[in-house]
Write a structure and sequence with these properties.
Length: 343
């Protein structure tokens, strides 16, 4: 290093002033490196694939919400979109709002037969091009609530869509994706990083995170990229208050008198009030923050492994996921109501 300093005009044996200058030189060097690295990363992140109009993308859960908006945006960009819709009405509405190149197919991700039919249809559509991307967006959130209030079927009804559906869709369509050396985009959630409530939703989103990580490491040899979208809270059917409250009442009504007594008569009312407060405070109405991430994962030459969508995700949930578990435990204790017979 003395030779470097001598070359730059600093004496080999530095006094206090030259030592300070050397420290400043290091700071300038580190600062310059960080700025150049950031500029290089931004440039690399902005690069996009070519021949978008020849790329086929399959999206699930397109009746409403993120999937519906994504299909419209991809269609405008020139992608050949195949939209999986659960209902005829959802498919018809989407067709009327998009161009002639967007195709729809009825799809229930909990049905092996429905998934197989969708794959056969897609195989005919894409031909030798293969499938550039699949976006596993279909999902459900309900029921959510205290774990003790749930029955086994309350968990499995969510897991069939959010977990098993994602796995089966991916494995069924994987040969078409390998053919195109394409992309797999799985929609998880910030609640796949921080388990904040009971029911199957958090469990399923943790599973999506794990499945996606394992899959990415297994198939990167084939040129396939696996991306995870981690949205915060947004105003969609998943976060609509009316269905959430109906499900909470249903769960409460199926409890035994002993369990109800342990929580107290006012617990349900307080729980619902907190849910309203949280949803009204944090839910973002700008769904494009999520679809921008999905679109980047499909169109970028160098897609990211994870995308955090929404300021609550970036500044709240994701940093919280790196903190000790006791921090989250204490936070939830302060927010959630206490049962009548708590210790």
């Amino acid at each position: 290093m003395d030779s470097v300093y001598q070359y730059l005009g600093y004496p080999a044996q530095a006094n206090d002033d030259s030592g300070t200058s050397r420290d400043n030189l290091w700071l300038y060097g580190v600062g310059t490196f960080m700025v150049l690295w950031a500029l290089g990363w931004l440039y690399r992140d902005s690069l996009e694939i070519e021949d978008i109009k020849e790329k086929y993308v399959f999206v699930t859960g397109c009746d409403s919400g993120f999937g519906n908006l994504l299909c419209k945006r991809l269609d405008r960009r020139g992608f050949r979109v195949i939209a999986g819709c659960l209902t005829d009405k959802g498919a018809d509405d989407l067709k009327r709002a998009t161009g002639p190149y967007l195709k729809t197919v009825l799809l229930d991700v909990t049905s092996t037969g429905s998934i197989q039919k969708a794959m056969e249809y897609t195989k005919q559509e894409v031909g030798d091009n293969g499938l550039w991307g699949i976006v596993n967006n279909a999902g459900r959130s309900l029921p959510m609530g205290p774990s003790e209030w749930m029955r086994l079927e309350d968990f499995t009804s969510t897991l069939k869509v959010n977990m098993t559906g994602v796995i089966e869709m991916t494995l069924t369509f994987l040969p078409l994706i390998k053919q195109a050396q394409g992309r797999i985009v799985n929609v998880a959630s910030v609640l796949g990083r921080v388990a904040a409530n009971g029911g199957g939703y958090c469990i399923s989103k943790f599973a999506v995170e794990s499945f996606s990580d394992c899959l990415r490491r297994d198939i990167h040899y084939f040129g396939i990229k696996v991306c995870i979208i981690e949205p915060g809270f947004f105003k969609t059917a998943v976060t609509s208050l009316d269905p959430i409250e109906r499900e909470l009442h249903r769960l409460w009504n199926q409890l035994t008198p002993e369990v109800k007594a342990s929580y107290g008569d006012k617990y349900l009312e307080k729980y619902i009030q907190i849910q309203r407060l949280i949803m009204n405070a944090v839910c973002d109405s700008d769904l494009s923050k999520v679809t921008n991430c999905m679109e980047h994962a499909l169109a970028s030459s160098y897609p990211r492994t994870r995308y955090s969508a929404g300021w609550d995700a970036k500044l709240g949930w994701i940093p919280l996921s790196y903190m000790p578990s006791c921090v989250i435990d204490i936070g939830l204790k302060l927010v959630m109501p206490r049962p009548a017979k708590s210790v």
